[in-house]
Design a protein that fits this description.
By secondary structure, this protein is α+β, with helices and mostly antiparallel strands. 51% of the residues lie in helices and 20% in strands.
Length: 167
């Protein structure tokens, strides 16, 4: 009688151990199926956050450039840093390291459209009451390969700000 109990008890334990091993294998397979999707979601979220941060940087830099252009709209790209481009780069020195970074200042034509580029240092005549727009552009490179295949390898982001000249 004692021997029968021991055998039954041993059998129950061995089936429980086998069931746990099977569960562990199933969990590993589930992880292998879900992990790539989770990594893709996390990396895509990081790309989205990086792009949003860069967009904010460009908007802030354009705002600083426009604040300078409100007072000295004809000084776009002078020899020193005392110009619109200098005001943009002082706001965020990291911007000049970005791919395809550019600063464009536009003023209005005869019909009021902001399409005439203001260049150089004191070259274009922008007067008080004219509107100017500072446009800061850079290329944003994605790091997630799957997102790159959908939206392209790099995307151009733009920040702009418009002011009325005061001087």
């Amino acid at each position: 009688m004692g021997r029968a109990r021991v055998q039954r008890s041993h059998r129950r334990r061995s089936t429980a151990v086998a069931a746990r091993r099977t569960d562990r294998g199933a969990s590993l397979v589930e992880l292998a199926l879900v992990a790539p999707a989770m990594i893709l979601i996390v990396m895509g979220t990081l790309d989205l956050a990086r792009g949003y941060r860069m967009q904010i940087q460009l908007e802030n830099a354009a705002g600083q450039g426009a604040a300078y252009a409100r007072i000295s709209p004809n000084d776009v790209d002078c020899a020193g840093n005392d110009d619109v481009v200098g005001a943009v780069t002082k706001e965020d020195p990291e911007l000049v390291t970005l791919v395809d970074f550019s600063v464009v200042v536009l003023t209005e034509n005869g019909s009021g459209d902001l399409v005439v580029p203001v260049t150089g240092c004191g070259g274009t005549t922008v007067t008080a009451g004219d509107r100017v727009r500072v446009v800061v552009t850079a290329t944003f490179d994605l790091v997630t390969p799957a997102v790159e295949s959908v939206v392209g390898e790099s995307n151009s982001l733009t920040g702009s700000s418009e002011v009325v000249v005061q001087t």
